[in-house]
Design goal:
The protein is an alpha/beta fold. Helices cover about 50% and strands about 15% of the residues. Strand 4 (about 80-85), helix 5 and strand 5 (about 105-110) form a beta-alpha-beta unit. Helix 4 (about 65-75) packs across helix 5 (about 90-100) and helix 8 (about 140-155) packs parallel to helix 9 (about 170-175).
Length: about 220
């Protein structure tokens, strides 16, 4: 499963890039606004830093506006994917942008029917939002499982990009469900590193090493030839 970072924050993206675990980035108008910088400049910095797909969303809601913005966004870099909202104008724009060889990611998907339409329109990615369904008492993971099954049934080319992820269990369940991509808020990815038994195990190893050092009366080199 590919890991995208769901953030426009350069230090957060860089930290995980340095570990080699970042396959791409997703942003949206809210995430870009949070950084307080010029969005086009911020998007260009991210697209330069991350070689994988970098998703930048249009803010226009009409077909012509989406096409114009989509073309400008695509010019930022060859790795840039244009995010389009799940609307009728959006699907028309997805088809036209696909015809022009521009990859799109249809966002704000909350039903399998929407995902099916987006895939048929030619979206490279569909983004079902898990957390926002959970927030209203539904089970967002059901949507992911339904879409993965439907896309498998018909060998749909669009990739399932699980979004609106709130905690590590969402990531686990998305991997088990076979989602192609999970886009991870940095705080969720941070939590995935942690386990109390790992911490306890490291402490035990070091305590035992210290005990040996005391027993041998001083410093010991970690390993002797
Ligand atoms: O960026 C798309 C999606 O991941 C947003 O998630 O947390 O705003 O529901 P959230």
């Amino acid at each position: 499963m590919k890991f995208f970072i769901d953030s426009a924050n350069m230090p957060s993206i860089q930290k995980f890039m340095d570990m080699g675990i970042v396959d791409g980035v997703t942003t949206n108008p809210s995430l870009l606004s949070k950084e307080g910088a010029d969005p086009a400049e911020q998007a260009a910095k991210i697209a330069k830093l991350v070689p994988g797909p970098v998703n930048i969303e249009v803010v226009a809601s009409d077909y012509e506006g989406m096409i114009n913005e989509g073309r400008k966004i695509a010019e930022i870099g060859s790795n840039v994917v244009v995010k389009i909202p799940m609307t009728k104008d959006g699907m028309h724009a997805v088809r036209e942008l696909a015809n022009r060889g521009i990859k799109t990611n249809v966002t704000l998907i909350f039903s399998a029917q929407q995902a099916l339409i987006a895939a048929k329109a030619g979206a490279a990615y569909v983004s079902p939002f898990i957390g926002r369904l959970d927030d209203i008492g539904e089970d967002g993971m059901v949507l992911i499982r339904d879409i993965v099954k439907i896309f498998d049934n018909y060998s749909m080319e669009s990739q399932v990009l699980a979004a609106s992820i709130r905690h590590p269990v969402h990531v686990l369940e998305c991997a088990k469900a076979g989602a192609d991509v999970a886009t991870l808020p940095p705080d969720v990815l941070e939590k995935m590193f942690m386990h109390p038994l790992t911490d306890a195990g490291i402490k035990k190893f070091l305590d035992d090493w210290d005990a040996l050092r005391k027993k041998l009366g001083g410093n010991i080199s970690p390993f002797k030839r």
